[in-house]
Amino acid sequence: MAVTGVILVLFLIAHMYGNLKIFSGQQAFDDYSAYLRNLGEPLLPYSGALWLMRVVLLASILLHIYAAVTLWHRARAVTGGRGAARYVSTKARRGHQRSYASFTLRWGGVVIGLFVIYHVLHLTTNTIAPGGASASPYERMINGFQLWPVVLSYTVALIALAFHLRHGLWAAFASLGWNRSPRVRRNLNVMATVVTVVIIAGFLIPPFAILFGVVQ
Amino acid sequence: MNITLRVWRQRDAADKGRMVTYHVEGISPDMSFLEVLDMLNERLTMEGEDPIAFDSDCREGICGACGLVINGLAHGPKQMVTTCQLHMRSFNDGDVIDVEPFRAEPFTVIRDLVVDRSSFDRIIQAGGYISVNTGAAPDAHAIPVPREDAQDAFDAAACISCGACVAACPNGSASLFLGAKIAHLGKLPQGQPERHSRALRMTAQHDHEGFGGCTQIGECEAVCPKGIPLSVISQTNADVLGALAHGGK
């Protein structure tokens, strides 16, 4: 759970950085996209390095889901499928301190999973092409994010991702055995929040810049 | 004080169980929550009804026998106290209070509010010990222990195995209890020879008993009457990872 999660977060950081190249113009953005496919040539075939990364990512996603389903199944078995709601009393629905982020981790993960499928169909394969299909990744972005429903759907997914990362990062650090003192714990929580904010802000800036016509 | 209690009544493990409402009058704010149940039980007995079964022993917060979910919170609304040390001044006159047993699949309800926590004993048996040669008592300071390690070990050793961590955990995990038992021996020199096997065996027994996995929510720590820190769970994970790195020995 933790190791695959960290791999996926590292990917998100790289992905977010690539997206910001939209501000360098169409040439730079499309060149970067082409570079990812040429990476490692001639040692590797065209798109070879990219496919290696995709295999690692796909394996991480599948293992992440497998671990999550295992934990979910165990939690359901021990609580009669009710989780924290296994008590008749409804006076402490969120316990002493349970956060919204921890509460939505599993269903939020499902939302993110569905979003990833939609996202790949939209901007990678361009099977779904709101605003018009294009061979240029730059134009795909511009065409799509000029439409507010598209921006809205991405924003909803990113909010789900924000909650998922906020709790998930902290939980990953703790599960890897790093939470060993109150001071370290505070730092790990700050780190989880900072990484989350940076990733979400970095992903939200390009769509909104396009929607409001800053990038055309 | 006059209080309305909604108490979980269940004849035995096979019974479905239900909440039953009782009005209790003339409660002193200085009474412990268990004394209110005693008072109610006395009345029920006089009226020829079955008294409410609940666990208790020392009634001074150190044995771990008592434990109820009060208004949806293990050991009630106050933190760092066991149910026996929860006094009625923590409630208001006229309150309706829900009282339920600790719930988790391995904690079978024996009757009313009494649950079977012998799964905890089996987790301890799996590795919660150190091996020493018996004989004359060793000199008190024969093995130096760094002050910080001694403090951490003592913090973990404060666990009274009440099971509140399991009762509060949305995943029904006993990781806080497990971590406390692993950290309390693992932090001391005497616990080093079996450190890796202890972590592996106790964790395996924990999973075998059917407890859930930890997702670092921290509700266990919040209800723990002894304030066992969440860091003991990271300690468990580190010990298990260390053991796996050494080939599972």
Could you explain how this protein is built, in words?
The complex is a heterodimer of chains A (216) and B (249). Chain A has 216 residues and is mainly α. Chain A has helices at 2-19, 26-38, 48-78, 100-103, 105-124, 137-145, 148-175, 182-211. Chain B has 249 residues and is α+β, with helices and mostly antiparallel strands. Chain B is built from eight helices and seven strands, in the order E-E-H-E-E-E-E-E-H-H-H-H-H-H-H. Chain B has helices spanning 33-46, 118-125, 147-157, 164-168, 175-186, 195-208, 219-223, 231-245, and strands spanning 3-9, 18-24, 69-70, 73-74, 96-100, 109-111, 114-115. Chain B is elongated, with a radius of gyration of 20 Å. The model of chain B has no long low-confidence stretch (mean pLDDT 96). The interface between A and B is large, with 40 and 44 residues.
List the defining traits of the structure above.
heterodimer; A: 216 residues; mainly alpha; 8 helices; 0% strand; B: 249 residues; alpha+beta; Ubiquitin-like (UB roll); Fumarate Reductase Iron-sulfur Protein, Chain B, domain 2; 2 domains; five-stranded mixed beta sheet; two-stranded antiparallel sheet; 7 strands; 34% helix; elongated
Largest sheet of chain A: none
Strand content of chain A: under 5%
Radius of gyration of chain A: 20 Å
Query: By helix and strand content of chain B, what is the structural category?
Result: alpha+beta
Low-confidence stretches of chain B: none
